[in-house]
Amino acid sequence: xxxxxxxxxxxxxxxxxxxxxxxxxxxxxxxxxxxxxxxxxxxxxxxxxxxxxxxxxxxxxxxxxxxxxxxxxxxxxxxxxxxxxxxxxxxxxxxxxxxxxxxxxxxxxxxxxxxxxxxxxxxxxxxxxxxxxxxxxxxxxxxxxxxxxxxxxxxxxxxxxxxxxxxxxxxxxxxxxxxxxxxxxxxxxxxxxxxxxxxxxxxxxxxxxxxxxxxxxxxxxxxxxxxxxxxxxxxxxxxxxxxxxxxxxxxxxxxxxxxxxxxxxxxxxxxxxxxxxxxxxxxxxxxxxxxxxxxxxxxxx
Length: 301
Hints:
The chain has helices at 15-28, 59-66, 70-83, 85-92, 110-113, 117-129, 147-164, 188-193, 198-205, 208-211, 214-227, 240-254, 265-273, 284-294; strands at 2-8, 33-37, 49-52, 100-104, 131-140, 168-173, 233-234. By secondary structure, it is α/β, with parallel strands linked by helices.
């Protein structure tokens, strides 16, 4: 079995920075990592790329040849990748024996809750290569400072979860910068646990610009609460403990923690229900190196 992550999220949520930091962290705890760039618009990669979609198709070429804008061009590129999935399979086969995979996808959110091409690519890879993947949806934590944007982030998270049909973790990224966006109306737990949304509706009604959408907001919040699926983890990509805690959640969700276990269902359940005793950041020298390597990170897509 091969394990990995599908990294998605809106533009500017920090996907590329996440892949860079996560790959460094995983390497430092002993895993061989391969980052697969499937964003044909990302021409400035801070990480070493094992597979790059630009070797197959480039967004700039698509836009010029077919007179498309960036959004239409990205849809075309994902459709082209799906039709040429054999190319991606051939690139991945040498890696799946001993690598942990990170898939860096485009930031066009329509690809993950509206169009089917990206999902079809993922599902074909899972079936043919026996992958165990977790979807990581990054959402910029600054959206918590605006009630309307926060509700939009909840809807995006729910739609993506239902569309991709993968083990899924929603992440508030750049949590270290959240105080710079202004004081939150509620404590952080309210936003991560997605508690009673009537409170944020009341807060939103105080804004005369959104008061006229009161009924619509109420209906949308009820949809989110009725599904009861959305919550968030937090991430500071420069904090080794924050990254380590997220890795623990991911390893449970895609089954990495069970990979080396042979035994009864009872033993599996003990691992699933109990806290992990793995030390994800056990060596002080390694921790310091990780922090030194990451201190100059810049957030981008």
